[in-house]
Structure formats: C-alpha cells, structure tokens
C-alpha cells in the first residue's frame, strides 16, 4: 500500500482532528453543553467518514468531508463570537444548553488554577439543595479556553481542507493515468489482448 504525501498528510490530520474532537466532546459532556455535544457528535462521524474515504480512495467521501469542514469552521466562529460576547450573543445565556438547564462551560469552574468554593444557602440543610459556587484565582478565564479550543479546530480544518484538496487532485490524476490508454501498455497472454 503506497502512500503519497497528500494522502498521508490527510490521514495524519484526520487522526489529529478526531483526537481533538473527542477531547472537546468529553469537556462538553462534563459541562452539559448540549448544542456543542450534538455538533461534536456529527463532526466525529464525518471525520471518521473522511478518514475512511482517504484510506479507501473514495473521493466522494472526501468531498462530503470537505463540505462539512466549511460548516465546522462556521460553527467554531459562532462559538468564538458566543464566548467573546459579540453582538447580541452572551456567554451567560443558556443558548448552548437549549435553555433546558443552567449549566455553563466546564472550564468556568475547573479551569487552570481555579479555586472552587461551595457555599450552602442558609436555612437549607438537605443534601440535594443547590449551593452557590464561587470561583477565584483562575490563571485564564474560561471563555478564552473555549476560544482557544475553537481556534484550534478552525486551524486544523483549514489544513485538512488543503490536504483534502491535494488528495482528491492526486487521486484524480492517478485515475486519469490508469484510464489513459496511451500510457498503459498492452499485455498479451494466450491470444487475448488486455489493456
């Protein structure tokens, strides 16, 4: 099984993209971020499809993968705008949880260097009661961690699109060389001619 540079690059980038998407999926699950969980789920499926298309020389799968990369970049730009409070978007809204819970990014309470303190409400002594959580001492605010995640996804998607285009073009050139009868020598065996 030979490996041309564009194909190997695409396999490598798909693998890296799959690992980064799985990491992001874990932290979105921990924060109960339902919209990103669904987006990551579809992204993981399409990345596996793109990886399969690259390994099996299926240009149609790579084209679907490339189209998804454009949508994935748009989704990550939206996430960046959401966490940076661009326009009417605000990170304090429940938009990413479909307004069914008050959860926010997992990084808001568990970021690097964050010290988390829970304070129970006075007069409420049950174990299941809600408590106020204060977070102090974070080395980096959670919205910037989310922006870095999305920025990384965008960079990988841009490099993947370049590698996918190279892989489809090189696959097209390879197929053209195989179907061109002027470059394929004729073989004769037992009185039969093969192309």
Automatic annotation (TrEMBL):
<comment type="similarity">
    <text>Belongs to the NKAIN family.</text>
</comment>
<feature type="transmembrane region" description="Helical">
    <location>
        <begin position="62"/>
        <end position="85"/>
    </location>
</feature>
<keyword id="KW-1133">Transmembrane helix</keyword>
<dbReference type="Pfam" id="PF05640">
    <property type="entry name" value="NKAIN"/>
</dbReference>
<protein>
    <recommendedName>
        <fullName>Sodium/potassium-transporting ATPase subunit beta-1-interacting protein</fullName>
    </recommendedName>
</protein>
<feature type="transmembrane region" description="Helical">
    <location>
        <begin position="34"/>
        <end position="55"/>
    </location>
</feature>
<keyword id="KW-0812">Transmembrane</keyword>
<keyword id="KW-0472">Membrane</keyword>
<keyword id="KW-0732">Signal</keyword>
<dbReference type="InterPro" id="IPR008516">
    <property type="entry name" value="Na/K-Atpase_Interacting"/>
</dbReference>
<dbReference type="GO" id="GO:0002028">
    <property type="term" value="P:regulation of sodium ion transport"/>
</dbReference>
<dbReference type="GO" id="GO:0005886">
    <property type="term" value="C:plasma membrane"/>
</dbReference>
<feature type="signal peptide">
    <location>
        <begin position="1"/>
        <end position="21"/>
    </location>
</feature>
<keyword id="KW-1003">Cell membrane</keyword>
């Amino acid at each position: 099984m030979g490996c041309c540079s564009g194909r190997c690059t695409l396999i490598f980038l798909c693998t890296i993209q799959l690992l980064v998407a799985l990491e992001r999926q874990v932290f979105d699950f921990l924060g109960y971020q339902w919209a990103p969980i669904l987006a990551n789920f579809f992204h993981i499926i399409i990345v596996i499809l793109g990886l399969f298309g690259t390994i099996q020389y299926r240009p149609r799968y790579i084209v679907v993968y490339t189209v998804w990369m454009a949508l994935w970049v748009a989704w990550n730009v939206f996430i960046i705008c959401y966490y940076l409070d661009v326009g009417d978007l605000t990170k304090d809204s429940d938009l990413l949880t479909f307004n069914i819970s008050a959860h926010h990014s997992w990084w808001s309470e568990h970021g690097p260097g964050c010290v988390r303190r829970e304070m129970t409400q006075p007069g409420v002594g049950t174990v299941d009661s809600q408590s106020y959580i204060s977070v102090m001492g974070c080395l980096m605010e959670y919205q910037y961690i989310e922006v870095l995640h999305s920025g990384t996804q965008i960079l990988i998607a841009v490099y993947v699109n370049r590698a996918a285009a190279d892989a489809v073009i090189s696959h097209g050139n390879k197929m053209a060389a195989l179907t061109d009868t002027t470059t394929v020598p004729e073989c004769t065996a037992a009185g039969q001619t093969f192309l």
